Amino acid sequence: MQTPQMLIHLETQADLDDAIHKLVDQDRRLRPILELTGMPAIRQREPGFAGLAAIICGQQLSTASAAAIWGRVSTAFDPFHHDAIRKARADRLGRLGLSAAKIKTLKHIARELAEERLNLDVLANEEADAAHNTLTALPGIGPWTADVYLLFCLGHGDAWPAGDLAVQEAVKIGLGLKERPTPKQMAPLAEPWRPLRGAAAHLWWAYYRVLRNREGVIAGAK
């Protein structure tokens, strides 16, 4: 198991560049993938409660719908703070476009933060699997949401979005698998990429976009 000293953070493009170069040296199967994609661009989101709330708001929605709802929520609560959400009436949040389940999730997280039972910032320095488990223990936070938060909001270099369909499809084609791997199967497949699984995810997303362009499909997913 990794120690905290071994954690790598992807906070700048230079961090990602360095991690990708180490990754392809670590696993030569990835070199032709990088040659096709070019160096992926780093993708970052706001950390803390606002970043997690934005991901929750966008769960199971199209990019456009997610952006519209988050735009209304973040405008209605500016500055965006967990106490404001904790105190807000559920019907007001519902009028902004949030489902009852998402309201329940956001209010629970807001209470945990207010009571200091949860600290989202410290997760950046925890081992990836432990940080993932902390987040998924929260009601309404699934594996994909946890991993996207760790990777894009905290720059966790070893976060691995095993449930992401685009990454699964890219891994299937890139590694020559017969079928798209399940989230459970994705875990052992990614073992050779520790402690840089987050960098590997960036590379596989880039490869997925290359594949979609080749097929003539409008790119943009993930």
TrEMBL record:
EC category: hydrolase
Listed InterPro entries: Alkylbase_DNA_Glycosylase/TA, DNA_glycosylase, HhH-GPD_domain
Stretches assigned to the HhH-GPD domain: 57-208
EC number: 3.2.2.21
SMART domains in the cross-refs: ENDO3c
One example GO MF annotation: alkylbase DNA N-glycosylase activity
Record's catalysed reaction(s): Hydrolysis of alkylated DNA, releasing 3-methyladenine, 3-methylguanine, 7-methylguanine and 7-methyladenine
Keyword DNA repair: yes
Protein name per its UniProtKB record: DNA-3-methyladenine glycosylase II
